[in-house]
Input
Amino acid sequence: MKETLNISEGVPQELIDKAYCVVVLPSVVKGAFIVGGSYGRGVLTCRGGADMSVAWGAPMMMALEGASVGFQIGGKATDFVLLMMNDRSAKGVLTG
Output
């Protein structure tokens, strides 16, 4: 996660400083030939405190999965960095 967030062309530090949670999903793979699917694994970490003064918490492992049907062909791999910028979005992820 540190390597992904420290890329020079990556996410600006001022955005990371404002985020309640960060999700890093390296190499989400998508492939399709009529029927398609996607899969990727990554990590989520959040910080707490009323003013976000508590350090980043323990990581939580995540999986991203999906399927699709229709006229499609191809494949790709994408890296995702998702920032949760308010406490409502962070609570929604952590509570279900």
Notes: The chain has one domain: 2-95. Residues 2-95 form one domain.
